[in-house]
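pasting Translation initiation factor 1 (eIF-1/SUI1) for the record, 115 residues
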Amino acid sequence: MSKKISSFEDLGGFVFSTNKDFSFEQEEGVTTLPPHQQKLEAHLDKKNRGGKIATLITGFEGTDHDLKILAKSLKTLCGVGGSVKNGEIIIQGNFRDKIMDFLKKEGYKVKRVGG
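structre below
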């Protein structure tokens, strides 16, 4: 019996090719910029959340893995839940100031966006 692959991410989204000359090569991914070269933005958002406030961190340039690691450290810092979607970190609640202080200490350039 053949072994099933758990997700398409293991193959980088590659499923099947009918091209006889095709060779499967994974491209080198995006490299993560060091913190002092990152320009992040901190937003407060209520859209599509049932009136509840969420803190959004946008502008991260790097791999999805590094973005998830940063999101996990922010969620741990605030003691709340959150997620990573479309290159944005979403933290439940209004923790913009606390997150901005933490990111500045880590060496990131953070800009406050919105009220």
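The chain has one domain: 31-112.
The two ends are 58 Å apart (CA to CA).
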